[in-house]
Amino acid sequence: MRQVGGKGNPTSFLFTDTQIKQESFLEDVNNILNTGEVPNIFAADEKADVCELVRGPAKEEERCPEGTPAQLFGYFLERCKKYLHIVLAFSPIGAAIRNRIRDFPSIVNCTTIDWFSEWPPDALQAVAKKFLGEIKMDDEVRESCVTMV
């Protein structure tokens, strides 16, 4: 968080479901996805250090006009949201993913989901038929095109 929000280093955090040793890990990920921070992650003195890290960039960007700790910490969180990219790699198989989505809704609500799994052949054919159905062509050609697609 200090590297990302404090120094403005773009960072990707890759987290797989095999790395979840305790479900509380997902609570922290859920909070970061939702608000950009983990509540109470910084003690008061650490929070002051973080505010000092962003004082220069905030001044350069003409942000935080009064330079109060609340403004500086808010700017720090904005930078965390801007520069931290969380990549979650979870298996969609089983009840674990359903339970985790139910318990930690930001996993779905604050992410873009890419499903990397093979489509069944009948589903691929149905999609091809739907989109090629509107195009004028012979039925024999259409079936060949569906097979090709």
SSE topology sketch:
Blueprint: H1 2-6, E1 11-16, H2 24-35, H3 44-60, H4 69-83, E2 84-89, H5 95-103, H6 106-109, H7 121-132, H8 139-148
Parallel strand pairs: 1-2
Quick structural gist:
The chain is mainly alpha-helical. It contains eight helices and two strands. The protein has two domains: 2-117, 3-Layer(aba) Sandwich (Rossmann fold); 118-149, no CATH class.
Q: Any key phrases for this structure?
A:
149 residues; mainly alpha; Rossmann fold; 2 domains; two-stranded parallel ribbon; elongated
Explain what this protein looks like in three dimensions.
The chain has 2 domains: 2-117, Rossmann fold (3-Layer(aba) Sandwich); 118-149, no CATH class. It contains 8 helices and 2 strands; from the N terminus they run αβαααβαααα. By secondary structure, the protein is mainly alpha-helical. The chain has a two-stranded parallel sheet with strand order 1-2.
Please provide the count of β strands. 2
Distance between the termini: 45 Å
Overall average residue pLDDT? 91
Runs in which pLDDT lies below 50 for 5 or more consecutive residues are none
Which CATH architecture of the largest domain is right?
3-Layer(aba) Sandwich
Shape: elongated
Helix-strand string? HEHHHEHHHH
CATH topology of the largest domain: Rossmann fold
Structural class by secondary-structure content: mainly alpha
> Percent of residues in beta strands?
5-15%
Helix content: 55-70%
**Main pleated-sheet profile:** 2 strands, parallel
Cα radius of gyration in angstroms: 23 Å
What's the arrangement of strands in the largest beta sheet? 1-2
The CATH H-level homologous superfamily of the largest domain = P-loop containing nucleotide triphosphate hydrolases
* Number of domain modules: 2
